[in-house]
Amino acid sequence: MTMSRVLFVLIAFAVSAFSQAVSSRVRVAGEFMYNLAERKVLPEIADLKGRELNAEVAVNVIVSKTGTVTKARSFKGDSSLFKRSEQAALKWHYKPYLMAAEPVEVDTTLEFRFTKDKVEIVVPPPPRP
């Protein structure tokens, strides 16, 4: 095999591996994705007014290349608040997350804190250097 053919094969493999890496889903910290959120929706709690709430719910979300939340699954917290947390998470929208100037699908986490008569988004502080 000539040197140019070997070089061509190596470049072809590198391009193939790079495109596969860019097209895969990446895990991104919730505090970073929070800053990319264009639309944030809180869970509806009108039917819970007056009830003593003191809970946090964590929701794993999958964000498409276009920024739409395509999947939401609660995995931690008060299970009676899971469905409303997932419904709110599905209404979020993000700016596309880019890797090597290409949008990629993202796996991240949203957290909601439920207290008497209100819901807040839990945004952890960024890690210290």
Description:
The protein is an alpha+beta fold. It has a single domain, classed as TonB (TolA/TonB C-terminal domain, 2-Layer Sandwich), CATH 3.30.2420. Helix content is 28%, strand content 36%. The chain is built from three helices and nine strands, in the order H-E-H-E-E-E-H-E-E-E-E-E. The strands form three sheets. Strands 1, 3, 4, 8 and 9 form a five-stranded mixed beta sheet that branches. Strands 2-5 form a two-stranded antiparallel sheet. A hairpin with a 5-residue loop joins strand 3 (54-63) and strand 4. The radius of gyration is 20 Å and the shape is elongated. 17% of the residues are buried.
Write a brief caption for the model.
The chain has a single domain (25-121), classed as TolA/TonB C-terminal domain (2-Layer Sandwich). Helix content is 28%, strand content 36%.
Give the topology string: H per helix, E per strand. HEHEEEHEEEEE
Count the strands? Answer: 9
Number of domains: 1
Q: Given this structure, which CATH class is correct?
A: Alpha Beta
Mean pLDDT: 86
- Overall form: elongated
Structural class: alpha+beta
Straight-line N-to-C gap: 49 Å
**What's the Cα radius of gyration?**
20 Å
CATH superfamily: TonB
CATH architecture: 2-Layer Sandwich
Q: Which sheet architecture does the biggest sheet show?
A: 5 strands, mixed
- Strand-residue proportion: 35-45%
How many helical stretches? Answer: 3
What CATH calls the topology is TolA/TonB C-terminal domain
Low-pLDDT runs:
none
**Helix proportion range:** 25-40%
